[in-house]
Specification:
Blueprint: E1 3-7, E2 12-16, H1 19-23, H2 26-41, H3 43-66, H4 76-84, E3 90-93, H5 98-104, E4 111-114, H6 118-128, E5 133-136, H7 143-155, E6 160-163, H8 176-185, E7 189-190
Parallel strand pairs: 3-6, 3-7, 4-5, 4-6
Antiparallel strand pairs: 1-2
Helix pairs in contact: 3-6, 7-8
Length: 191
């Protein structure tokens, strides 16, 4: 009810009016729209004021949730074998396992590749409070430099962590960055 279709140049687009759109007068809608756009312009101020709180909140949340997990880590024999040979390792995981991996491998000094985007800043602040160190870069910003830094850190004697399916996907497809880091640093990959 209340829906119609409008012919667009390439398809029919449904036009649905909700109760709120019918009830709220046009002048009030314009005021609200203007206020929302001005609020979006103030996003940087909100971002700057909330960012310091993200690290403690995120670390506390992951720790609280992690205490409810029952985790069984498989593949430990590969890490132990690399340790016996005097090697460090690259921990490789999917994006969906980020929170679990953050909890399981906390306070081990693992160096992790994190995006330079705003969400990467939140992740960086959270995991640094949990004992990780970060290198910032992604496929769209600072990727080549970050790969070189990760490979150098691995060759210099540090464990590394990386999400192998990349920030843009496709999901569960290994991107070439982890292979480049492994080849350049000489470290084995532990999935």
């Amino acid at each position: 009810p209340g829906c119609a279709t409008r012919k667009n140049w390439h398809r029919s687009v449904p036009i649905c009016k909700t109760y709120a759109q019918n009830w709220v007068p046009r002048a009030l809608r314009n005021v609200l729209r203007t206020w929302l756009w001005s609020w979006r312009a103030g996003d940087k101020l909100i971002y700057m004021s909330l960012t310091p709180l993200i690290g403690p909140f995120g670390a506390g949340l992951i720790t609280a949730l992690g205490s409810t997990f029952s985790v069984q880590v498989s593949g430990q024999e590969y890490r132990d074998q690399a340790r016996e040979q005097g090697h460090y390792v690259i921990y490789a995981f999917w994006h969906e396992g980020l929170a679990i991996a953050t909890y399981v491998f906390r306070h081990q000094g693992i160096r992790v590749l994190v995006s330079q985007h705003q969400d990467g800043e939140y992740i960086s602040r959270t995991i640094e409070r949990m004992g990780y160190t970060t290198i910032r870069g992604s496929t769209t910003r600072g990727g080549a430099k970050a790969l070189f830094q990760m490979a150098a850190a691995g060759a210099g004697g540090e464990d590394l962590g990386i999400t192998v399916d990349g920030p843009r996907g496709p999901r569960h497809r290994v991107q070439s960055g982890v292979l480049y880091i492994a080849r350049r640093s000489g470290l084995p990959i532990v999935p």
